[in-house]
Amino acid sequence: MTIDRPLLAPITMGLVLSLSLSARAADPPPPKPPACPSDAASPDPMVLLRRVEQTLEGTSSVGTISMSIKTESWSRKLKMKVWAKGEDYALVRILEGGPRETGMMTLKREKQLWNYLPQAGRVMKLPSGMLGDSWMGSDFTNDDLVNGSSLTDDFESKVIGTAKHDGRDAWQVVLTPKPEATVVWGKVEMLVDRATCVPLIDRFFDEEGQLARTMVFAEIKTIGWRQFPGRVTVKPADSVRETVVSYDDMQFDVSIPDDTFSLHRLQQGR
């Protein structure tokens, strides 16, 4: 799992697919995930978080996602298709939304983000100054899509105990950024389900130690060998607004042609 990318992993900010794509030979099978250490009172945090990441991401993913955004003054619902491969490539196509959103596409290629605007029939590369802007009016930013943080690479982690959440036994995990990591959070607290290794709650704190936002994972369902949260709710701490992402249809570790993530395809609007 990447902390700032629930859509593409899970956006992450995982996830998803279906244009008319040319076939190609299947990719090598993904590595076997580490077992969920369900019986351990205090598991090795690196083993646990590696399992969490593989559970939420896979080597690639394809599916259909619904996203609803609610604020004090307005609400919006979008339906989208998402193609994701590793941490560097993702394509999102808005299938249903308002007149301005429907048909829009967002392409991530490594550290660059591009938008296809159907009304103008053109492609626009997002400048660095817009990375902090909201993506589609949601509680995810463009920077969340581009610069997601890795649980295992960017954080020191520690299992500090166990807790109950919604009838489930969970580990309490605290993550603090490594000195060299470019992470916006001062600390992250997680509850991870002991039975499935699926995160239940992520709480993000700023550098002053104040709660900044909360992510709640729910509707856990089986997809292949993994358990996966069917719904993720994101709530900023200082606002009544919220973003809810529902994973309507998901496939993991599937073969996706490389040109799916090409600028040429994006410019064709398909």
Could you please describe the fold and organization of this structure?
This protein has 4 helices and 13 strands. It is mostly beta strands and 270 residues long. The chain has one domain: Clam (outer membrane lipoprotein receptor (LolB), chain A), CATH 2.50.20. It has a 13-stranded antiparallel β-sheet. The longest helix has 12 residues. The chain is globular and about 55 Å long. 39% of the residues are buried.
Give me the secondary-structure topology.
Elements: H1 45-56, E1 60-70, E2 75-85, E3 89-96, E4 105-109, E5 112-117, E6 122-125, H2 142-146, H3 151-154, E7 155-165, E8 168-177, E9 187-193, E10 199-205, E11 211-223, E12 226-236, E13 242-252, H4 263-268
Antiparallel strand pairs: 1-2, 1-13, 2-3, 3-4, 4-5, 5-6, 7-8, 8-9, 9-10, 10-11, 11-12, 12-13
- List the total number of helices: 4
The secondary structure category is: mainly beta
CATH class: Mainly Beta
The H/E string reads HEEEEEEHHEEEEEEEH
Give the end-to-end Cα distance, rounded to a whole number of Å.
Answer: 28 Å
Quick summary:
With 270 residues, this protein is mainly beta. 10% of the residues lie in helices and 43% in strands.
